[in-house]
Amino acid sequence: MATMDEIAKKAGVSQATVSRVINGNTSVNPALREKVMYWVRKLDYQPNATARSLVNNKSYLLGLIIPDISNPYFSEVVQSIEEEAENNGYNIILCNSNGSSTKEKKHIKTLLSRQVDGFLIVPINQKDTYLHKLKRDQIPVVVFTQQMDKYDSVGVDHKYGGSLAAKHLIDLGHTKLGFIGSKGEEKFRGYLSIIKKHGLSFKEEYFIESSGWLQLSTHDSYNKVCNYLKNKKRSLQATAFFANNDLAAFGAIQAFEEFGFSVPEKIAIVGFDNTSLAAICRPALTSIAQPTGSIGSLAVELLLKRINGQAEKDIAKILLEPRLVIRESTTGIDLSNLL
């Protein structure tokens, strides 16, 4: 079995440095940490977890709660979190709340019983009191994929993402822009602001409402769009729609095409998240890309600083910018033949 001394020799560092890396000390230079972890994996070093926990008064476990494990967007963020945690000598316990505050509360209790060192969480309802109890009990918590008052957070500027979608569609010549989702979303606010900025109007008939954590699945979006088109007697009120995630966009494309509105020839569709499925579906989906790798790694980095007492006293708010990825679902439309 490999020892810390062997790892130190292979990596060209001291045993103290190896110890700091294995124990998750974030003060170690990232390049040096990666070098040490390379040899940890290469030599299959197995630290005594029980002894390590007793010495450092830590479990080296991070509790991770997401709302929808079936959504590839969250799966991609989780992958990034797991990799960053492993690079710092931590393991994660993953829980899926399935969009339920009750399940989320239950998971928190379970993770506390496992003595996790901190939480990474996508809250279902930011006003739930049990979340604030973690804060009062001084348990390190980082909220990710959204911003939350009084908590460290790593999020994405959804309002800016919505504005990117609107600008892209307007640049293509669209003047009647629709939306699939909830009007309460920052994405919609950004989308609407650009529409108004260009002197265009947003009418109710351009809106297909769908709300809730699990309401924007492909199946649900498909049903909502089908009902919308049935009520409109197969007529189309807009030439382009922005769906507030990729799964909703996939369902919308299927519904529109079944009603004779082919994408992108007769209607343009933009998604949000730029999941791995966006590039391989047909037509390939134009989408607003979220930096999933950065979200996960920065969230773990921030949490470990809190755990190790190395974070600033002030709450950290990290807001990342999304970007537009243009694919087939918004190209090739002939607006002269529409509406």
Automatic annotation (TrEMBL):
Keywords: DNA-binding, Transcription, Transcription regulation. SUPFAM superfamilies: lambda repressor-like DNA-binding domains, Periplasmic binding protein-like I. GO terms for molecular function: DNA-binding transcription factor activity; transcription cis-regulatory region binding. CDD domains: HTH_LacI, PBP1_LacI_sugar_binding-like. Coiled coil: none annotated. Residues 3-29 form the HTH cro/C1-type domain. Pfam families: LacI (PF00356), Peripla_BP_3 (PF13377). Transmembrane segments: none annotated. Residues 2-56 form the HTH lacI-type domain. InterPro entries: Cro/C1-type_HTH, HTH_LacI, LacI/GalR-like_sensor, Lambda_DNA-bd_dom_sf, Peripla_BP_I. PROSITE patterns: HTH_CROC1, HTH_LACI_1, HTH_LACI_2. Gene3D superfamilies: 3.40.50.2300, lambda repressor-like DNA-binding domains. The keyword Mitochondrion does not apply. This is Substrate-binding domain-containing protein.
